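Continuing from the previous page of notes. For each protein in this section, the sequence appears first, followed by its structure tokens. Read the first protein now.
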Amino acid sequence: MAGEKEADRPHRGHRLEKLRASGPKGSAARERANQDGLKKNAILDCGWGRLVFGQTFADPRELANSLREEGPDRRDIAFYVKDPHVLLSHAPQELFLDPSHTYRLDLSTYRPGNRRPRGYFIRRLASEEDATEVNRIYQSRGMVQVHPAFFWTNRDNRALTYFVAEDETTGAILGTVTGVHGKRAFGDPENGSSLWCLAVDPQAPHPGIGESLVRRLAEHFQARGCAFMDLSVMHDNDQAIGLYDKLGFARVSYFTIKRKNEINERLFTGPNDEYEGLNPYARIIVDEARRRGIHTEVVDAAGGFFRLTHGGRTVLCRESLSELTSAVAMSICDDKMVTRRMVEAAGVTVPEQISGDSDDAAIAAFIETHGQIVVKPARGEQGRGISVGIETLAEARTAIEAARQHSPNVLLEACFQGNDLRLIVIDYRLVAAALRKPPVITGDGRSSVRDLIEHLSRRRSAATGGESKVPMDAETERCVKQAGFAMDDVPPEGERITVRKTANLHTGGTIHDVTGDIHPALVEAAVAAARAIEIPVTGIDLMIKSPALADYVFIEANERPGLANHEPQPTAERFVDLLFPLSVPFSVRAARTHQKRSRKED
């Protein structure tokens, strides 16, 4: 280590050697621990599945049988397995060696960090509402969810500890971590603890949430006299491993065994280069198709193309765009001027608009009438070339030139003050709705605007598989200047700056589910727009005052909406339902038939 003193190295080496040698040591440890209250065949229910403590099982056959008892849609984990090869020999077709590493933090030498959380704080999970939010974060991270009642009923469980990170301003839950006290869970003679289910909301605006949660849990167990804190992390999770290395964790030689199931299928079937190359928008659909036994063939992973076959029917897709969407519908969505005329004729409210080819007098008059306008290319996607909140003729001319980089035809629209709403309509029914919010940075009193934007972009990119980041371009500089700052200024701590006016995911925006809060008028507008275009799968964008109010204006329709952005709503399920109605599980079909009959009777 750079800068390490020569005299410190023997002590550090001794400490690492001690860590590697510590922990459960098979039969010898069990024999010693019998006097210390080590439970036999100890299992702890964690809601998402069970922790099966391998060192408490004298007979590997009993441990294998315990893993065979895994419930549906659950993920049991056998931890602290010293001899995985022996355990696997008792159920080689059912169990597999999890490709994860075990890391340990020596709590006797751990020292708390100097930086306090900024913009959020860490506290105990305190309500069923907290539990619901934790599940939302689990869902966004592809983790197994827990019934909210489990968290609440186990709030006094001395073996389990739940912490959450809460935004100081909004009260939103931003992250979560679970801790297990070894002695209380299974009478651990080593007096250890472990960390599980560390998860941060991919939309979280603040840096360092994961580190703060880990430190809080470590300090919690340190205060209770625990000797160490262990965790299991996937071998290729470089970002997490980097954090654990930074905090002083050291790798130890314990292994994790799991039962083969649909949840962890990728871990034991081996890598599939074509499948791994799919982006999140294609993968969510392929995953749903495979769950139903639909044959999937990746045609071009980089482009998001795949072919689905079921019951003699084959459909070629590019993410959520399929052969069921006609070329005519695509051409309507592609040209925003045509889209506007079509939906306006169907009674959908649209904003006032003029052409970017208008003369200066007409543009100046349009700005004076509306105060602020939007300039956008007539063709394009993902928010490219769009400028929002234009207030002067000079800004308009600059924005028009930027928009012409993406389309020769440019549109000027009245700026509707409100929020950007994306509604997913599949088979002319609303499936999901989400507010899309523009990227915002929060000053820390030390970093420049430029650095804060770069930090935000790194977090958004990591959270979305590289799909989201804030462009460092003239539009971002204009928005920062409009807020009263330059790119190299250092904003005061707590100062919030909106660095883009567009809320598209691909320009750093965040997405917040509001499906349960949508006013019927907004649903009717979205369905009417989809029917006017005659498009079976679409993302309808509206500007609104509030999801609960009827006020709106139509912005555009997207022929290939990103379904992965709307979890936990069943967007992929409804998409596959549309393509292959007979693949819908019988119980679901029966329930829908019953609902239709009930509505007719009413």
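Done with the first. The second protein uses the same format. Note its length before scrolling.
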Amino acid sequence: MVGVSDGRGPGQPPPAARGAVGRPLLSLALAAMLDEVHAHSGAVYLLAPDQPVLEMAVMAGMPRDFAAPWERVGLSAPIPVAQALRERRLIWVSGEEEMVRRYPRIAVVLPYPFALAALPLATRDAAYGAVFVTWPAAHPPVLSDWERDHLSAACDRLALRLERAAAERRPVLAEPDLLGTGPSGGTAGSLGSVEAARMVSRLPYGLAALDLHGRVSFANTAAADLLGLPVAELLGTRLWTSVPWLSDPMYEDRYRGALLSQHVTSFVALRPPSDWLSFRLYPSTTGLSVRISRARAVAELGRGTPGPGDGTSPSSLVTISRVLGLAGALTEAVGVRDVVQLVADEIVPAVGSQALMILGSQSGRLQVLGQRGYRDRRAVEQFHGTPLSAPTPSTRVLSTGAPAFFSSRQELERLYPVRYAVRDDFAAWAYLPLIASGRPVGTCVLAYAEPHPFPADERAVLTSLGGLIAQALERARLYDAKHRLAHGLQQALLPHSLPQVPGFDAAARYLPATQGMEIGGDFYDLVPTPPPAAVIGDVQGHNVTAAGLMGQLRTAVRAFTTVGQEPQEVMRSTNRLLMDLGVELFASCLYLRLDPADGSAVMSRAGHPPPLLRRPDGKVRVLDLAGGPLLGIDPAATYPTTRVGLAPGSVLVLYTDGLVESPDVDIEDALAELGQRLGEAGRTPLDELADCLVRHSAAARERADDVALLLLRARGDG
């Protein structure tokens, strides 16, 4: 067993300083770690060379099949080992409920009670990988200090050894996983003594022993009779492969659940045509003991228990777990760009490919929706705009809905000789049809750097993944279309540009909330009709109704201003209009009439946040304006006015509450921070100032609400 190579040729002994080269570095470290903290399984991941990918190097205590969806994971993946390395800290998951809440992808595939800790393998200068260990469900909900200390120290030691190996250019070689002893060949039917075997053979119920892989290492005569197979045909096989009526994945799931949680687990199964058998699994860290007996009064229990002969393949549970894990990743995708990113981060590492391209169709031609891993721009351009009638694998897959797999360049070019006018430096390809709602929506191309055979089970998995990607892609394209519609509507309802106003410069910003439709009721306007006026407001809601009402209010304010109404009258008229519309929505508003001649503004406020004024000397104050209630509450409400002087160089900041209101920040503190930023940057050009105020606002970064901002600077030349 070789763990670390010293890079020397045959017959060249390693220097004494290097110590015992050839010991299984990772396996021994992992085994010691599990023993120190009494964990029952774990794995070591190493960073792939020149890729942000973690690859499982060795696993202990459980079959590798349990972690099949995560043998290769992107460093950005939301799973504990990736997070531990990204954040360089210990990640603790206390049990099933916390796993569901924080890491739903893992909970979907492994819905069993167990605790998990993940830690980085990193030194001060470099990152090498990560480790996870698991405990049975009986572990306390809090990781103890001594467990933390032991795990952290063990990972630090392993990281230092990896650093030393890297410095000495000794590659870490493959090591076997650490599992319990498998079937023992000719002695598999022995329990260690003849008398013990005789005793077990006399028992009226069946007894069997399974190793960690689920293989039968012992079965007594009663078990063989109940299962309907001779002992010789059971030994060394998995029950769900050798016994046809146990081939449903549900039964293998019970074995996985028992091993991972270390809880005694039971189930009943129907042996055709009408015999119900009870199975009770007693797990340990080396395998399981199974008691098999006839079940009584299970007719009701058996309802809903899958029957035999459903055609499920023996390895289908591993296939299903892989697909479920990746499906969980795709549910997080919102737009097309998110789908491409998640497929690149989650699916590409998991299936071992090195590049990805997702193609759609538009106006009878292929359209590249996104790609990762193609370094030559020309290799991407050869796809974009290809007529759907062209004889290429991507168009064929899109038109026929049948996948295509090419294990080598020769195989591809023999069938499609014109395919590679531009070489892309890859050696194998999987072309997956993306079919959603019964129609093709695109093609997913997975490219491999080396020749890659595609056995039947892998083709089935990749084809299933194509279906999941298609569903995510269709949702994403609908979202993107809705987003473009919402964005267009919002832009149509807000001013395309701000007019020139005598004596004042102006700048504005609008940011939609990131929740809902990304469209809302915040609005602003600058009316040049002499005397000029400005308005900012906020209709409650982040939907089309709020946006439509916002457009009506903005138009009404402009109309009332144009006919010459005074500020208080504009507010009263707008309030009555909102009441007459009967929409049961409220709005805040701040309206001001500018007087460039004497450098002042008359302001009226309806429940809106107070504006900020930066004086020419740099001092900032919050304007305490008179005002009335929100628009749309009281038809008889009045809105008194306040006159404010605006000396040349003064900057007036009008904003909606999305700029300052955040769940984690006190409103007074947010206003104080906004005022400080305004005081420091108030002399910069208005567009730069607007960007600065938005960029440094915590509330604007979170975007739980729309943000509107209108800045006015008095020039003094009106």
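What the second structure shows: Confidence is low (pLDDT under 50) at residues 1-22, 181-192, 297-319. The two ends are 87 Å apart (CA to CA). We return to this in next week's lecture.
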